[in-house]
Amino acid sequence: MKNKTNKILIFGNCLEGHHLEYIHHLYMRATKEVLSDFIFVIPDEFLKMRNLLEWPDASNINFDFLDANETYKCNNNKYLHYLGSQTYSARLLCKKIKKHQPDHVFMLSIDMGIPFLDLFLGYSKSPLISCIIYRIVPYQWHSLSAIKKITEWITYHITLRKKRYKTCFLLNSHKYISVYNKKFRTDKYKYLDDPVTTDIKKGDNLRATLEIPDAARVYVHLGVMGRDKGTLRILEALNLFSEDDARDRYFIFAGKITDGIRDEFYEKYKSLPPYCHVILYDKFCEYDLFCSLYKTCDYVLFPYTPRPNSSGLLGNAALFGKPVITTDGGAMGDLVREYHLGHLMPDNSVSSIYQAILKPDTSDFSPKKYSESHTIENFCEQIFSSFR
Q1: What's the start-to-end Cα distance of the chain, in Å?
Q2: Does the pLDDT value for residue 79 go beyond 50?
Q3: Are the C-beta atoms of residues 82 and 113 closer than 8 Å to each other?
Q4: pLDDT exceeds cutoff 90 at 198
């Protein structure tokens, strides 16, 4: 039997959004890499969520769990403010590196302590480090605070140029690979697919169960709901509907409503005209339900404030052949335009959302290219190539 050649530490300090799915993709690929050992350092909340997916036993994979207090300090920017949570994440990861002595560290997000990690590692021998970059900084530079601009400048101009940082994956952004490599005089910035993670075989059309007529148009708003996602503005737009507007339109909100908008959401929800057809699932939704809702709907509605990162909703909607209605500008606007994924609003004002719902332009909708290229296999191969 050949000796094991590599020890890889995969570090993630949250399971929200698509992080749990990414961890699962990497875990499943790691089960096939029998000549390498893997340590997944992730929140212990995983133990409550692991039944959502299958995790076959593998002798080359171990877990080192972060407790609730550690996870809180990593992710709550109110804990000594932004720099405090970043510094804590860096110290925690440095502690795990010293404990496990890996050859390579993979950070599920750059927002886990760089450049502070470099400060704690100092000049000592350390593993090679790779990471995912979700936020494409040029999209948001003008809106950053002074302290975040300084942190970003140090991160990109000084820290990531050091030899211990091997590969920096830009998630779903072909456009900026050459820009980053040229600007920072390197070749370590690589492209990474944001994989389509749902299974088109799962779920059932719920129109009969929900008593939605076959001829009705159904709009779904999925995932964690918050202010930046445009959740409240959708409700405000529905308040503009006449009875004729609402007659053949149904709206499904599915996902946990964040505490920051919960009271306001329910106030607006309860004040909707009685003729508006709204169905609400205020909870963490399992994958089968999401698949069912993609099969049920005609449009996926997420009028984000323009943002510097992609969303897994794009890929899932493309897989099920459903056009999105979202905001132009930022990373998602570029992707919707490049891959012909749906309707782009000029902004996410209430009036724009109202008009887009009434008359979405999906004449060039062509999702096949996106869904066929953004696979889990591509995602894993791109990441695992950085371990070689």
Answers
A1: 20
A2: no
A3: no
A4: no
